[in-house]
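== Fold encoding ==
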Amino acid sequence: KSHAFRFSTMPTQGADTAVEIRVPYDQEAKEYFPSYTYNAQKRVYERWYNGEEQYDGKTNKRIEASNVIVQFCETSYYQNSASRPLISTIKGGIMDAFIDGRHIRGTWDRQTVNDRTVFLDMNGEEITLLPGKTFIQIIPMTHSFSYVRDDGTSVDLGSGSDAPMMKLDETGIEDLDKME
């Protein structure tokens, strides 16, 4: 049965904390800069834009998302114009999901325009999101972004070797089971 995403009040748990997410699109001019801060009481990420709190223009309520996904995509520009990006959301690539104050590195897959995008953890399992709004920040594969852990350390990530993908094979899992 077709579905957009998997949701549960018990979502996929990342191994790392993430209390702030920074996704600058114009990395030199510091414009077009969405960011999010985690509100643990509400279990949501509150959205900021260019350093200012972002509110819904109609309801005047703070814009919040239960899940934020940063999806790296191949990007080119029509007639070399930066204001006319051509973004490929077919095949797949690297993604980073932020759910319930945690970070999960993984991949995304979408083989044809008729398929849904599936977000997978590093073990190839589809991630389960927290019910509520999900923001997907699509960024070029050449860009990077950062997040801040609850201890205040900042982690910079790109689509390449900045955070290598690691997948345990069955032998690795058996070795982990033997460890105390």
About this structure: The radius of gyration is 17 Å.
